Amino acid sequence: MSTEQNLITTPITADFLRGHLDVEETAHGLLPHRLPVWARRRIPDDRLAVAEAQPSGVRLVFHTNATTIRVDTLPTKRVYRGFPPPPDGIYDLLVDGRLTAQATVDGGNLHTITDMQTQTAEFTPGHAGTAHFTDLPPGEKDIEIWLPHAEITEVIALRTDAPVEPAPDKGRRVWLHHGSSISHGSNAVFPSTIWPALAASAGDVELINLGFGGSALVDPFIARAMRDTPADLISLKLGINIVNSDAMRLRAFAPAVHGFLDTIREGHPTTPLLLVSPILCPTHENTPGPLIPDLSSGTLKFKATGDPAETAAGRLTLTIVREVLADIVKQRSVEDPDLHYLDGLDLYGESDHDEFPLPDAIHPGPEGHRRISENFAELVFANNGPFAITTG
Question: pTM of the predicted model, to two decimals?
Fold first, then answer.
């Protein structure tokens, strides 16, 4: 049986991380980022700054014989003043691709949201902690530890009862995905079961997840970051944040999407590129934003506050956004045969909503994430889908 005294300590370097675009050296260890440093300088608000530092899709990957693993980290946990604190973030440990163990880390810094609408926050420093994994299968194995998708995590060190080394590149295709809080993993419980992670497993690809809660707003610097990131497959799931933040009118939205696609194509001229419209969300199907929190039922839900009549003046709803995105792909695919469109209603539509309603009226729960992943895998990675492996 391993004791703390005979564990081998390995400082974590960037070679052990996957699914990130940058790392920041901190006083404690490494903080993985999902946007490069130059792009972080363009971030206009705290919401995106927090979201990109939350390691959705980021994992530690290494090869070892160890049966005991400790991961020392310093988490930053987000809480809302006046609400009970959420559960500690989960660390999922996969052995040779199979979920085998889970752990949490106590303590950490606190990022307290004092106003949900303005996202005003206070920071309280805390202490580092450890995720403990024991009784793992013996023998050589590849380990993936998926970091909590909604908890900023500074990774410090691995402590194991056998040596570790970074896992070799398996040569799998790299899937670069950008989306909203649903892609980020909102209302999913485990980091390896957010819908992009499940779909990536089904498609046997390496995921880089640029799903940013509340922040899929067609920002040009995100398009530039995607342009400059090596990838074999690219997808964009756009629309819901434009509507629920009331960020654009129709006149601005379509050209912004064209510009986003133009920028990506500068670096990826023939890469399969999939534009995905929003899944079903009755709150915004025919009602514009902005979206506000609604506590009238005693639990947190959201409601749209726009006037449907104002769509005549260019305000956007999900129904309109789907029409715009489909038309953009129809126009562009004449000259860009590697550009594809997927209607979000095919990922999660009325029958899916009847079976697995949105718990807070905006985000799918764990069952919804699994359904979206299954539909995505079937429509995109399998058969003749746009990300299917072609031969010949």
Answer: 0.95
